[in-house]
User: What shape does this take?
Amino acid sequence: MWRRRPRFCKCDRLHTAPGWVSVGGVYEKHSDGSLVKYYTAVNKTIAVRQAGTLSYLLQDQLGSTVGVMDTRGAVTGTQTYWPYGATRSSTGVLAGTAPTDRQYTGQQQEAPASDALGLYDYKARFYSTTLGRFVSADASGGSGPNGYEYADGRPVGLRGPEWEHHN
Assistant: This one.
């Protein structure tokens, strides 16, 4: 069951919510006793171990999870996205119970894909793939005249609130 998760920084701290505990964004323990471990390299999540199964995450230029590979190198699922992040198509494990909830631009999806708003947690604020914008204004004022806008209105060549170029 999906639950609202508290926002947390990537640091060595313990974070809890009903039915869920996170240690620095690397380990998650759920109320059913299941443990999820994330492996990162160069600030990107590259693998996840859940229920004893290791899965490698394949990412595109924006850091979105576009595939999952098992330890033998076989692709077990693929996923594509529309320009503002809504899921376009899914196959294999990504069409069912994905091994990770870190999907579009590598951010945590707050609810299943069937959720009406398609919310992603960008740590400082939430982004809706349905609306194609953030659901709250940028408190720092760094988003220009439209504080709710995502990627300066150009989601294919820019990414996230920091508007980094990815060519």
